[in-house]
Here is the input.
Amino acid sequence: MNSSKPEFVPYENYRRFNHGEMVARSRAFYEMIRKRRTVREFSPEPFPDEIIENAILAAGTAPNGANLQPWHFAIVRDPAIKQKIRVAAEAEEQEFYQTRAPQEWLDALAPLGTDEHKPFLEIAPALIVVFGKAYSVSPAGKNVKNYYVSESVGIATGLLIASLHSAGLATLTHTPSPMAFLNEILGRPKNERPFLLLVVGYPAADVTIPNISKKTLSEISSIH
Ligand code: IYR
Here is the structure.
């Protein structure tokens, strides 16, 4: 049994705004985040490491199950490792597009123009592989169960993407399936399950994006 007593401290960093400021801030955040678009063509142009480090620190603030922080973020910049990831991901994707994907799924993907070729895995300067930890291993070697892992890691990944976008970098959320090859290539332990792979960089100079739109407020919400 866990007998540690809860300790509470004043929430000194909470900032209160007047209503006008609150509305303006919510609008400014929406205006910033609505400009985010997934891109599939990247420039090899480098950017400071600290942008990714700060984005991961931001991701690590996410609300999560029992504050057990069940995530690991592997930053991949080594061209040889990126190449291994590309080769393994393209092998899985070839299987997916040619055999595994049902027609309904392929039809849903058609507007995005995706296929099994993933050159961006080598061209972009960095990949972040996000892992969720079903359990953690304590320093004493004991397995500690984690809770709400996919919810927690999903929220953290949202913050990660928002941070990178606000810094001026583009991302691509890539989910080769299955992703077990990422544990092998990156030497990550088996309690860490790949959640998704984020490609990070500047968009290619001549990048184009699918002409798609987001649903309206009334389509995605209801009032009760
Ligand atoms: N993992 C594949 C297929 C894919 C699936 C969905 I759902 C997407 O939104 C995009 C792609 C790929 O990366 O091509």
In short: The domain at 41-220 is CATH 3.40.109.10 (NADH Oxidase).
